[in-house]
Amino acid sequence: MKLKTIFVMCKKCGARIQIKLPRNIEFPEHSDLYWVVHAHGDLDSDAHALIIEVDRNLNVRNTRVSDEFYLTYDV
Questions:
Q1: Distance (Å, rounded) from C-alpha 75 to C-alpha 67?
Q2: Fewer CB in 10 Å around end: N or C, the chain?
Q3: What is the DSSP string of 34-50?
């Protein structure tokens, strides 16, 4: 599987994040953007999720931080 590495800056903590995405992502027919969510930070105090929008060439078009972040496990 061929991968493309993207780099984004988190608007909340300033971290530079590297993410490897598969080049063969299947986009929905009705959209030219694909959303990727990356959770990071300390789970005990400051975990947050970065929402990254990429276009069909896997170029970053926008980033934002989620308003809330909850990590749950189904048992």
A1: 26
A2: C
A3: EEEEEEES-TTTT-EEE
